[in-house]
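User: My notes are a mess, but here's the protein and nicotinamide-adenine-dinucleotide's SMILES. Can you give me a structure?
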Amino acid sequence: MGRLDNKIALVTGAGQGIGEAIVELFAREGAHVVVSDLDLARANEVAAQIVRSGGRAAACGLDVTDEPGWQRAIAWIQAELGGLDILVNNAGVALVKSIEDTSLAQFRNVMRVNVEGVFLGIKHAAPALAARAKGRATTAAIVNLASVLGVQGIPDNIAYGTSKAAVRQLSRCAAIEFAERDTPIRVNAVLPAVTDTPMVRREIEEWAELGTFGTRDVETTRAAFGARVPLKRIGSAAEIAYTVLFAASDESSFTTGAEYAVDGGRLAV
Ligand SMILES: NC(=O)c1ccc[n+]([C@@H]2O[C@H](COP(=O)([O-])OP(=O)(O)OC[C@H]3O[C@@H](n4cnc5c(N)ncnc54)[C@H](O)[C@@H]3O)[C@@H](O)[C@H]2O)c1
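Assistant: No problem, the inputs look usable. Here's the predicted complex:
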């Protein structure tokens, strides 16, 4: 028995990093996964690897800022797979820049992907999620990837930090609207910190360039960043994926509007 048997799950930004770890874990737990990403070639590779390992997966090119793209993706999933049980809004972009150096265009781009992308996902997946959950004993689930940096302020992070605070509020507003209107969809947020993915590897190099953590050396920056975590290390994408799995599965059936920090203890300090 898998923890997601008979579930159909769409994960955005699943071509690498945390999203890739989520689709791999979901497929191992019995879900039919839709691996979507801006980069269709990477989504295809991840889906093919899952199928080679005995899982069920389809790939889909989806830019989360593209509203007609969302409509096409959801219609395709309903027609080809028979409906949708789980949406993971994982796609996101980072921006390591001071306030002074952040242009309005850059600020808006982060908001477009990280905030509008999640809004569009919730809006366009909700009818399909609710339709499949109606009349069943379980609810559908949306899991949004926010961040510890949507709670804590750090320098050179104005756009990303603001966008991730907004993702937390998108999650709460959707959770309560669905609950109060008897729409069978739970919405929860997962807040990772410093997870070893291409995004963070790039950020560490950019922090080193700016000297954000008092050094311009990449390895010293990586160590300094890890040292800020009470568990004194950077997390793995698989460690985030396990919490997303719980929030997406029926095991969390009495949970909505909640936040799960997967942060090595950062928010407890
Ligand atoms: N890595 C961390 O430490 C960390 C910490 C907190 C939160 N997060 C959040 O977790 C999520 C995944 O992060 P990651 O570290 O795996 O990032 P990543 O950059 O390694 O991977 C992100 C994926 O999203 C895709 N993507 C980017 N823009 C897109 C768009 N417009 N439409 C569709 N796909 C798009 C990219 O192609 C890429 O495959 C993000 O929302 C990120 O903000 C990550």
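The two ends are 38 Å apart (CA to CA).
User: Great, I'll file this with my notes.
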